[in-house]
């Protein structure tokens, strides 16, 4: 499913301050070394079927089936969990991945940009986003973005 951003949901997300979580002053007590050997693969990630477009960015939730603590260098305890998102710019092909840690006490850490993304991971996310878009709309991600951006949805 593809939505057009009329709800302002993406604008709210994009207005959040996305911190670079490699900053050692942040969450020092929860930090652990990142494990760059864990790569996104078709076997350990799945993109949600809903891709949300807002202006020039497409956003998709990513289900992850690997040790997120090791990949992102974070510490989770108890019922803590992490949400992972892909932001794809259709025109340029740029891919960013962010994550948000949700704590079992109800607190939420700031959205953090993952800066260790390999080119192969970016390529995979772009391909999976195209496949997801094709399944949902019959169009590639670029075509769906062009279709939505040329309509009056963003006016």
Task: Walk me through this protein's architecture.
- Helix content is 26%, strand content 26%.
- The chain has helices spanning 9-15, 68-72, 119-137, 141-149, and strands at residues 2-3, 19-20, 45-54, 57-64, 81-88, 95-102, 112-114.
- The protein starts with a strand and ends in a 6-residue tail after the last helix.
- With 155 residues, it is α/β, with parallel strands linked by helices.
- β3 (45-54) and β4 (57-64) form a beta hairpin.
How far the N terminus sits from the C terminus, by CA atoms, comes to 21 Å
| Large-scale geometry | globular
Q: How many separate structural domains?
A: 1
Q: How many individual helices? A: 4
**β-strand number:** 7
Q: What oligomeric assembly is this protein in? A: single chain
Order of helices and strands: EHEEEHEEEHH
Helix content: 25-40%
Describe the secondary-structure layout:
Blueprint: E1 2-3, H1 9-15, E2 19-20, E3 45-54, E4 57-64, H2 68-72, E5 81-88, E6 95-102, E7 112-114, H3 119-137, H4 141-149
Parallel strand pairs: 1-3, 2-7
Antiparallel strand pairs: 3-4, 4-5, 5-6, 6-7
Short summary of the structure?
With 155 residues, this protein is of the alpha/beta class. It is 26% helix and 26% strand.
What features would you highlight for this structure?
single chain; 155 residues; alpha/beta; 4 helices; 26% helix
């Amino acid at each position: 499913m593809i939505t057009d951003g009329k709800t302002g949901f993406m604008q709210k997300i994009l207005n959040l301050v996305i911190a670079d979580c490699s900053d050692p002053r942040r969450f020092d007590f929860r930090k652990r070394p990142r494990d760059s050997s864990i790569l996104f693969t078709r076997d350990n990630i799945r993109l949600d079927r809903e891709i949300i477009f807002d202006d020039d960015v497409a956003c998709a939730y990513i289900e992850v089936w690997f040790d997120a603590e090791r990949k992102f260098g974070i510490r989770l305890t108890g019922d803590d969990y992490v949400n992972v998102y892909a932001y794809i710019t259709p025109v340029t092909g740029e891919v960013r991945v962010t994550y948000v840690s949700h704590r079992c006490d109800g607190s939420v850490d700031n959205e953090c940009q993952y800066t260790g993304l390999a080119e192969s991971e970016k390529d995979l996310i772009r391909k999976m986003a195209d496949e997801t878009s094709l399944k949902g709309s019959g169009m590639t991600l670029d075509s769906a973005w062009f279709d939505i951006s040329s309509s009056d949805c963003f006016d």
